[in-house]
Structure formats: structure tokens, C-alpha cells
Amino acid sequence: MEAARTIPGRENGGNCDIKNLSRGSKIYLPVFVDGANLSTGDMHFSQGDGEVTFCGAIEMSGFLDLKCEIIRGGMKEYLTPMGPTPLHVNPIFEIGPVEPRFSEWLVFEGISVDESGGQHYLDATVAYKRAVLNAIDYLSKFGYSKEQVYLLLSCCPCEGRISGIVDSPNAVATLAVPTAIFDQDIRPKSSKVPVGPRLVRKPDVLKCSYEGNLPTTENPGARI
After folding, report:
1. Contact 91, 29 (CB under 8 A)
2. How many Å apart are CA 113 and CA 126, to the nearest integer?
3. Which whole-number Å values give the CA distances from 87 to 13, 69, 80, 171, 207, in the listed order?
4. Closest CA relative to residue 128, chosen from 156, 159, 158, 162
5. Does residue 148 register a pLDDT over 80?
6. CA geometry: angle at 7 spanning 157 and 132, to 5°?
7. Over 90: is that where the pLDDT of 31 sits?
8. Using a CB cutoff of 8 Å and minimum separation of 24, what contacts does 121-126 make?
9. Is the pLDDT of residue 202 over 80?
10. How far apart are CA 221 and CA 224, in angstroms?
11. What span is annotated as the signal peptide, if there is one (predicted)?
12. How far is residue 80's CA from residue 87's CA, in Å, rounded to a whole number?
């Protein structure tokens, strides 16, 4: 009755789960009450944009070293409420210099048409869901279960984008998956899908076994 839930992202910050907010980031949070406190938590070792399985990032324990500063009158100076009360504002972020760096991506597109063929007018959520489902279906052809791919897209540093929001009736979202995280080449080719990892049940637990002879893609970040 008197407090704001911290599960969702909200006006004063909340659980925003933005994967690029890492070491060196700056966060400008609105302050709505006198004597407000600051708390932080839910640190992730790795996460994909959207954390699509809800609790699908790689959670971790850790310590935060924070420097806090108050910009007096900052809300009035920089933030214009987009609604009927002063609460209708949102935080501003500066992304830090420490984030995953990849140069090669396979990008999956989704539009705002659901699995039953129903069209949702400029609905970016439906479009992003379709992009994720398209990625899951495609990557499952390379020997992974769809459950494995679903979890992977939630915890690997994939990049989600609203790529088109003006060409009605379809919103367009994209999901970019870094190719270097795989031990096989996942790009489409004129030949058949190569034999890569295959699922083995022992007896009812899925285990991914790789006994092929495919060229691997080196992750440049692993040399650091």
C-alpha cells in the first residue's frame, strides 16, 4: 500500500536488467522523497538483452563500489514529466567501457505477427518474441534442444533491437547472436547443416556431446 514493487523497472530505477550497465556506468536516478535511500542488487555475470527466460541470466554474488552525488534541482532542470504527475519520469544511463565485444553476428528478425497468424499493430513485444522464437528454431537445427537455445539466448550477450517502429502495421525487432560463442559455424550455407553437437540422454538428463570435426571459431576475448 505504501511502497513500490522492485521486481519491474520503474520510475526510480527498479529492476531494469540492462546488460550494458557494468563497471564504469553512470546512472542518473530521479529522487521523489526527502531522505531517500539507495539500494542495489541482482548482479549478473552474463545476460542477453531482455533476459527472455525471466530468471535466465547467470546470477552472481559480488560487491559494488559506488560513488554517489546529488544534482540538486536536477529533476526540474533535466526531466519533463510525460504524464499528469511528477512521477512520470525515468532514469538516464551512461554505459560504461566494460562490456562484451564481438565483431560477427547472426541476426534474426521478427515482426508483430504471432504464431497463429494474428497481426498486432506495431507491437514491439510480439515482434521481439518472434525474433527470439525464430532464433530458437534455427539454432536447434545444429544439434541443440530448443530448451538449451532458449536458456542460451537469455544468458549470452545477444543484442536485441527495435529495428522498425514506423512502418505500420508491423513493428520489426531483431536479435543479434554473436557467432564466436559457438564451437561450430552456424551461418547458413548451400550445403546441408553440418554434423555438430548432438543430444544424449543419460538416462533422462540432456547432455550435449560433440564428436565432430568442425572448425572452431576462436573467441578473441579468451586471449585477454
Report:
1. yes
2. 7
3. 12, 21, 10, 28, 49
4. 162
5. yes
6. 35
7. yes
8. 121/168, 121/169, 122/165, 122/168, 122/169, 122/170, 122/171, 123/171, 124/162, 124/165, 124/171, 124/173, 126/171
9. no
10. 6
11. none
12. 10
Decide: 100 and 26 in contact? Cβ < 8 Å: no
pLDDT digits (tens, 9 = 90+) for 94-135: 988 887 788 999 999 999 999 999 999 999 999 999 999 999
Closest to 42 (Cα-Cα) out of 29, 26, 55, 53: 55
CB 142 within 8 A of CB 196: yes
The residue type at 78 = Y
Q: What is the pLDDT of residues 49-90, one digit of tens each?
A: 998 988 778 889 989 899 999 999 999 999 999 999 888 999
- Written as nine digits, the cell of 147 is 530448451
Helix axes 124-139 and 146-155, enclosed angle (nearest 10) = 120
Q: Would you place residue 26 in the very low, low, confident or very high pLDDT band (cuts 50, 70, 90)?
A: very high
Secondary structure (H, E, C), the chain? CCCCCCCCEECCEECCCCCCCCCCCEEECCCCCCCCCCCCCCCEEECCCCCCCCCCCEECCCCCCCCCCCCCCHHHHHCCCCCCCCCCCCCEEECCCCCCCCCCEEEEEEECECCCCCECCCCHHHHHHHHHHHHHHHHHHHCCCHHHHHHHHHHCCCEEEEEECCCCCCCEEEEEEEHHHCCCCCCCCCCCCCCCCEEEECCCCEEEECCCCCCCCCCHHHHC
Q: How far is the C-alpha of 214 from the C-alpha of 195, rounded, in Å?
A: 8
Amino acid in the structure at residue 15: N
